[in-house]
Amino acid sequence: MTGSDSGENGAVPEGPALAHALMPLWAVSLGWEMERGRQVVISGQIRDRWWFDGRPAPFRELIVNVLVGRGAEVVGWWDPVDGLTFPVPGHRERFDALVAALPAAKEASPVDAPEPSGGWSASGTAASGDSSVSANVNRSGAAADPGEDGPPQDGTRRSTARRSAAAGLLQPRPPRRLVSLEDVTAQARRLAAQSSAATAFVFEDVDHALPVADPAAAQGYLRLRAAMTDAVPPSTPASGGRARNAMLVAVGDLDRLPGWFWQEDPRVASLQIGPPDQAERRLWLSFLRQDFRGHESATRHDVEALVGATDGMAGWELDALARTSQLRRVEICHPDRLMQAHRLNVSVDPWSQLDRAVMGQAAQTLMSSVIGQEVAVDAVAVALQAAFIGLDFGESGAARPRGSFFFVGPTGVGKTELAKAVAKLIFGDPTAYARFDMSEYQQEHAAERLAGAPPGFVGYDQGGELTRRVQERPFSVLLFDEIEKAHPAVLDKFLQILEDGRLTDGRGQTAYFSQSLIIFTSNTGTEALTGLLAAENGDGPSYDTLRRHFSRAVEEKFRAIGRPEIFGRLKPGVVVFDMLRAQHVAGITDRLLDQLAASAHERNQVEVVFDRPGVHAWITRRMAIPEQRAYGGRQIRNELELLRSTIVAHLLSQSPPPGSRIEVGVEHTGQVRVSDTPDSARGPAGTPGGRTAPLVGRVLPTPDNA
Questions:
Q1: What is the pLDDT of residues 86-125, one digit of tens each?
Q2: What is d(CA 78, CA 542) in angstroms, rounded to the nearest whole number?
Q3: Contact present, 2 and 52 (Cβ < 8 Å)
């Protein structure tokens, strides 16, 4: 705390602690490392806004103040854009004076001197063509006596101009500006190796000038490390004789530097700068409190709630949050609403923009797509309507997903189909949901696909599949299919999503799920369904029996893998789907037959008419077998596959013309019947068009020979 925070008689007021107002803790650690005689590679939040001496300050200003405070007479800052600059007035002049006082560099002998390139001599004059300039200048800079063929002393204007130009070549020039990393490193190395003055140089974003993928970059890193390790402590009184002349490197990501550059030498340390911690965010909000809307009436509790809600946010983001408070007219005393407005960056809640009449009829609409699952449909419809109205248990639920469900039950009863129906209800498109097949996440390392690989691993800069989707489209329906097949490490990713509504990827970017609807599907417990069906007479076990069976199976599954806390968060959203009942077989069959007929009409312009009573009678007998019914509606489609293959064979062999009409039925014996109707148009010459003999397909298995 600062001195201004003290109460009367020097008492410290009660309340949460603030970070030190002089500088962040990482800046203090930087000073300690330099006191130990180490050079430092700084990485992390170097683009962020920090503070120094009780006021906000960018990273560069903070570092410069730290170095000047430690007695640096010269602070030079290099970056790939501006080259070498001097943030403090007067430091450039001091730098030039120190460079001028350095011992002259040893010149190369004429034998070893490289041949100048580009047709220029070492003195900067042309190596070919008119050589009178170099011929008329001696080592002292005076014009040489002309020979017999030379111009007279009074000369012409041309000869006078030549002598003036030649004399100017050897006149002292102002020091040129250092731009390239190689030149700056060489000059800084010479200065840092001198104890006569305290110097400090910071090299920012060297990873852009020396990309690791370039083999030639290794030489640049070797020169830079040599400059860091060759530095000596200055003998000035302010230095104290402990810390060496500073040669610091600042990069956003430490993994963009070669590991050997900072790991192999104990005289080089690394310092990671993370986002502001709780005490630092509290200090930031004390700086910015006046910029928030409603700050006059805000209590300490309101500020503390905002401190907790801004976990992981950078200093610049806190400043932007204060601006959001004014722009969106959200007071500081409503941190959840403020954070939601800031993260989504939209003026309205997308859920509130849905059609009221459509949401009011959500149950009926979903029921038309999913047959025989009234309990599951009602549970989803209630959650959708609550999300539309915006009703929840206080503001604490505003960060969590708008709904989270765990669909469990027999296979093929409509779990995935209900997710598609929800997407169609909300977005008008049944494919407008993000589906994650969890059978692809059976290995432990596959967990990183959701949130992205950690720094240092291949592909970490691309983010995760899940976080990237939510960052791009926060208003989404997310389906995690067959969740029981995922590795337990994958399930751990969902703890934070279900509780806090957020997940941070490998790049440090956070995805927020407060506008998402999350659906898990599972077939856990299905392996015992065949036994339940065989033990029950009639239409199988009751729904209550199935609900208890599958609920217990899910809980035991999570306990077996050591993740009971996940079940605790999912338990309110567990929805058990009913098994396929006999009264629903005909309805599902009709839907599949309609899809088959529509496909034939669209691709072949042929009308397919089914003998529905005959097909219903046959498929009902087939699905009465417990082994068949255990696979649900998916088994109905498997049974109808032979009807489809017979129709395909008829279309290939008979080639009915567009506009034809064919009838398809199933005999009691299990034979498929396909024939043209009497009013069908005649086909091409030589082919029957009207009254053809029935085409009998393969014999379908019956309950007796199944």
A1: 999 999 999 999 999 988 765 444 434 444 333 333 333 3
A2: 76
A3: no
pLDDT tens-place string over residues 360-371: 888 998 988 888
Read off the DSSP letter of residue 108: P
Place of tokens 């800046």: 27
Rounded to 10°, the helix 415-427/374-389 angle is 30
d(CA 561, CA 295): 48
What are the backbone dihedrals phi and psi of residue 608, each rounded to the nearest 5 degrees, phi first?
A: -105, 125
Q: List Cβ neighbours of 570 (8 Å cut-off, separation of 6 or more).
A: 404, 406, 498, 520
Distance from C-alpha of 243 to C-alpha of 74, rounded to nearest angstrom = 15
The predicted-structure confidence for 72-91, as pLDDT tens digits, reads as follows: 999 999 999 999 999 999 99
Task: Name the token pair of 521.
Answer: 């599907």
What is the CB neighbour count within 10 angstroms for residue 471?
A: 16
CA-to-CA dists, residue 362 to 130, 366, 380, 422, 609, angstroms? 92, 6, 9, 9, 32
Give dist(CA 703, CA 706) in Å, integer. Answer: 5
Exposure string over 689-699, b if 16+ CB within 10 A, otherwise e: eeebeebebee
What angle in degrees, to the nearest 10, is found between the helix axes of 335-344 and 300-309?
30
Spatial CA neighbour of 654 closest among 616, 682, 622, 612: 682
642 by Cβ neighbours in 10 Å (0-12 / 13-18 / 19+) ranks as middle
- What pLDDT, in 10s, does the model give residues 193-239? 999 899 999 999 999 999 988 889 999 999 999 999 999 999 877 65
Q: Is 526 helix (H, G, I), strand (E, B) or coil?
A: helix
Contact 519, 419 (CB under 8 A): yes
pLDDT at 5 over 60: no
User: At 575, phi and psi to the nearest 5?
Assistant: -120, 120
How many CB atoms sit inside 10 A of residue 575's CB?
A: 24
Choice between 678 and 141, residue whose per-residue pLDDT is larger: 678
Three-class secondary structure of residue 106 per DSSP: coil
- Rounded to whole angstroms, the Cα distance separating 310 from 303 reads 11
In sequence order, what are the beta bridge partners of 403? 517
What's the gap between Cα 398 and its chain centre?
Answer: 22
What's the pTM? 0.58
CA distance linking residue 373 with residue 380, whole number of Å: 11
Would you state the structure tokens that stand for residue 526, as one six-digit string? 């299905």
Rounded to whole angstroms, how far apart are CA atoms 325 and 342? Answer: 8
